[in-house]
Design a protein that fits this description.
By secondary structure, the protein is α+β, with helices and mostly antiparallel strands. Helices cover 43% and strands 26% of the residues. The protein is built from 28 helices and 34 strands. It is flat.
Length: 900
């Protein structure tokens, strides 16, 4: 916290952090050997890994075959890093990592496993793993990547520790300072450090200052200084130039106000940008300055606080003072007007004659007392603006009673003059409004005789306004409407409460009638007693015809409901039947009239009725439809199943006051579903057994294959002078790699279609797929924000395969882009494209065929994606242009509509 106006005083020394102390320590740490703990249940893999890693790196490696052994080792000695397999007996690699981090052990942790990245990588990184390395691949690549990961993660951990030690030294230095010191971050606003001197200045403990919310931090600064303070704080945070110091008012914990002088600098705090402020308490100095200033400004402040314009002059009429209102009125500033004669600053003329009035200073000096000046005066400002004024003047006297100048006061009455002029126009304007209104506006006396009628009455009733003035309300309304009008007007006179709009039927000149909506209000005399009635009548004849038509349609609908073969029923908000159709009555073999006023508890068992009532309650409470609800009911033939749609009936305020239901008997379908469910359970058991066997087999064989690759790598290095041996070992390694790819594909294919589809965030899935790569040489642009699709975790595998293909075969690719396009049908086009070499025309036809590859891959990647499309019921095509990039277009059908 800090920033401000520069002062020509000695400034406190700004305390800054430095990262230079880390250099020597980091350099030394690189020379030391690293102690590594390797955990894997395959002894042969541990042996070959240790031999490869220690042969070319400065590592000391201990091997253990279980997580429990690993924890025993960790109790006995310290390690720089841990390498762990994922699949192990009793506890797997993620269990190991979770337990390790729960003990607050921040040792570097690298998951080294042959299990598919899509299943484990994200979980491992979220639990705090430093890296994830796939053990499948050429030993040279795999162990090179593993060694690099060990070195870099350990170096990063040690650097972080050295930084913490540096911060401890810095903290000790600052804590001993006699000046207040704060370190502030702005996103969000937070005090991350405060020394004890700062706490004494503000009346808080250091812990209290650091625990303040953003609002609490802001409230340390007086309201008057917040804007400039935080503006300069942001400037400092972003490295922009700003004055070195600022004087500001601050709020102590006890509510008292103090003055501080603040000095600021931008620093790095725990690796992040922050602002360090040093604060001096200057409250006593400011009090002395304030007292002097108040004594000098008392007279000018009094005049400045007057709401009217105030101008003071000396005896010669030269301006010596102007308040803000005077500057606004005349268009002159005090700076510009000082020492100018009053006549140069403005002119005062008579509003009617336009003749200039006498010099006001001269007039005051002649009388020697307070006087009113010009009548009907207009002041002409610097830019020629005219302002109507009411003015007065008085002499200024010193303590000896001697006149030393004149003070003039001007009151702006322009708005008052405008109001007076407006009032004279008001009545004419309202009459013009009434004469041109489409509605009929009228007044009548308390006896019911019309005293005014607007011309639009002719369009409504065929009478001229003059003809209607001879009529009484009794001659205008039909008998029923007259009764309604008198009942409401009588209550109006008694209670004084304005009646609601009334719908009344009026007679017309040609003998027909017309429906109107009338709004009444009362006109009262000066004593508050009713004097006459004001009304506005609007033609609603067409609306009344429409209401009649709607009533006829409602009757037709009732006839349709009663004859419908679908069960239809209405309930009120208490769950009582209001109406049921013939199909409902026939289904339960109960006459329709016996349902009215009853609830489901009168016809079903308590358990079934309670379920139905609960569902009714949810529909009424939420005000939303519930579609395809499956319910049971009892009949003479036993338990029956029905599929029900329930729709709330809402009033004009959107509040549920009942519901309408539609039902269809689906008993036979439910029986078929139960039989299918049993068949699926049996199939699931078979798949589960196959999955367990496949998983165990893959894990054990993969470990053995990794060991074979490791030993082949060591033998190649040993027999580099024998080409035939090296060639044979290379072929062994390639066979191992091909076997691992086949196992990986079999695992994925085994799970395809098993997981339940859920709505997944496209943008997040793409980001997760990108996170599985390190060192990509092209940019992946993700434009899928705000869209979800129905899929499973294999969606991430699909994007992973696309990115991997660009990495392997894109050659010149610099950018890959993922985006979607809406289709008019409601479907979606999901597109992955890159700017690489693209796919040749001859390869496009067999692109998704099993085993197809242009070299160096298993040929299962795009074949697997095609199978995914079949499960999702999507389609995929490749529409890129050879030589310009690949473009995979996936089409998603429109989402299914809710069944009625």
């Amino acid at each position: 916290m800090s920033i401000g106006n520069a002062r020509q005083e000695a400034k406190p020394q700004i305390i800054e952090t430095s990262s230079s102390v880390l250099i020597d320590s980091q350099a030394q740490s690189k020379k030391d050997s690293l102690n590594i703990l390797h955990v894997d249940d395959d002894v042969s893999l541990l042996e070959v890994s240790k031999q490869i890693l220690t042969d070319e790196n400065n590592f000391e490696i201990d091997n253990v075959t279980s997580v429990d052994e690993a924890f025993k080792k960790l109790e006995q000695q310290t390690y720089d890093a841990i390498i762990s397999d994922y699949e192990m007996p009793l506890k797997n690699g993620l269990d190991f990592l979770k337990e390790l981090r729960s003990q607050q052990k921040e040792i570097s942790f690298i998951l080294f496993t042959g299990r598919g990245r899509e299943d484990v990588a994200i979980k491992a990184l979220n639990l705090g793993a430093d890296r994830y390395i796939n053990k499948n691949g050429s030993p040279e690549t795999v162990y090179g990547e593993l060694a690099d990961a060990i070195s870099k993660t350990v170096e990063r951990k040690k650097s972080k520790q050295l930084l913490v030690e540096s911060e401890i030294k810095y903290r000790t230095l600052v804590e001993k300072s006699l000046q207040g010191v704060l370190i502030t971050k702005t996103s969000p606003l937070q005090l991350v450090f405060a020394n004890s001197a700062m706490g004494k200045i503000l009346g808080y403990s250091t812990d209290e200052l650091k625990s303040l919310s953003p609002l609490g931090v802001a409230n340390l600064i007086h309201d008057e200084d917040k804007a400039v303070f935080f503006s300069r704080l942001e400037s400092r945070m972003h490295g922009k130039p700003s004055d070195s110091s600022l004087e500001l008012k601050a709020m102590r914990k006890d509510g008292s106000i103090i003055w501080l002088e603040a000095f600021a600098t931008r620093i790095e705090y725990l690796g992040e940008p922050a602002v360090q402020g040093v604060f001096l308490d200057i409250t006593e100095r400011k009090k002395a300055e304030d007292a002097l200033r108040k004594s000098e400004q008392r007279w000018s402040t009094t005049l400045a606080s007057i709401g009217d314009a105030v101008i003071a002059t000396d005896l010669s009429g030269k301006v010596t003072f102007m308040n803000a209102e005077a500057e606004k009125l005349t268009g002159w500033t005090l700076n510009d007007a000082s020492n100018k004669h009053i006549k140069e600053v403005f002119h005062i003329v008579n509003e009617k004659s336009r003749l200039e009035v006498e010099d006001p200073v001269t007039k005051v000096l002649e009388t020697g007392s307070t006087i009113g000046l010009a009548n009907n005066a207009v002041l002409i400002s610097k830019d020629g603006t005219e302002v109507a004024i009411d003015d007065s003047g008085a002499p200024i006297k010193n303590i000896d009673g001697e006149i030393t100048g004149v003070v003039l006061v001007f009151h702006d009455i322009t708005e008052i003059r405008k109001m007076q002029n407006s009032l004279t126009k008001s009545e004419a304007q309202y009459r013009l409004l009434a004469e041109n209104s489409q509605d009929v506006i009228w007044t009548m006396n308390l006896e019911g005789t019309f005293t005014y009628m607007s011309p639009s009455v002719y369009q409504l009733r065929g009478y001229t306004a003059q003809e209607v003035l001879k009529q009484n309300i009794r001659d205008v309304l039909t008998p029923d409407s007259l009764k309604t009008a008198f009942e409401n007007l009588g209550a109006f006179y008694l209670t004084g409460v304005t009646p609601p709009p009334l719908e009344l039927e009026q007679t017309c000149k040609d003998g027909s009638t017309v429906w109107i909506e009338v709004n009444f209000s009362v006109i009262r005399d000066k004593n508050g007693n009713p004097e006459s009635i004001l009304g506005v009548s609007r033609n609603i004849n067409e609306r009344k015809k429409m209401e009649k038509s709607l009533e006829e349609e409602r009757q037709d609908l009732n006839r349709i409901i009663d004859s419908s073969p679908i069960i239809i029923f209405y309930k009120d908000k208490e769950g009582k039947f209001i109406r049921v159709n013939e199909a409902f009555a026939e289904a339960l073999k109960i006459p329709k009239e016996k349902f009215i006023g009853k609830t489901v508890f009168d016809f079903y068992s308590a358990e079934i009725a309670q379920g139905m009532a609960n569902d009714d309650f949810n529909v009424l409470k939420s005000g939303r439809s519930r579609l395809d609800i499956i319910e049971q009911y009892e009949s003479a033939s036993g338990i029956r199943w029905v599929q029900t749609d329930k729709i709330p009936i809402l009033d004009k305020n959107g509040i549920s006051n009942g519901l309408i239901g539609f039902a269809q008997d689906i008993t036979e379908r439910k029986k078929a579903e139960e039989e299918l469910e049993q068949a699926l359970i049996q199939l699931s058991l078979v798949n589960e057994k196959l999955g367990v066997v496949g998983s165990l087999t893959r894990h054990d064989v993969n470990n053995k294959l990794s060991a074979v690759s490791g030993y082949a790598y060591l033998l190649k290095k040993k027999h580099m002078d024998q080409p035939d041996v090296v060639d044979g070992l290379c072929k062994i390694e390639q066979a191992v790699l091909d076997s691992a790819k086949i196992f990986e594909f079999s695992k994925l294919y085994e799970k395809l279609g098993v997981e339940k589809l859920t709505y997944m965030d496209l943008c997040a899935v793409v980001d997760e797929a990108v996170a599985l790569f390190t060192g990509l040489k092209f940019k992946v642009v993700n434009e899928c924000q705000g869209r979800s699709v129905l899929a499973d975790l294999f969606l991430r595998q699909m994007f992973y395969n696309f990115i991997d293909n660009t990495r392997k075969y894109g050659e010149k690719a610099t950018t890959a882009r993922v985006y979607f396009e809406e289709e008019e049908s409601g479907g979606l086009r999901l597109i992955y494209e890159d700017d690489g070499v693209g796919i040749s025309t001859e390869n496009k036809k067999k692109l998704f065929a099993e085993g197809f590859s242009t070299g160096g891959s298993s040929g299962f990647g795009l074949f697997f994606i095609k199978k995914m499309m079949d499960v999702y019921r999507w389609t995929i095509t490749e529409e890129g242009e050879p030589g310009k990039g690949a473009k995979f277009v996936i089409r998603l059908p429109p989402p299914p509509r809710a069944k009625r």
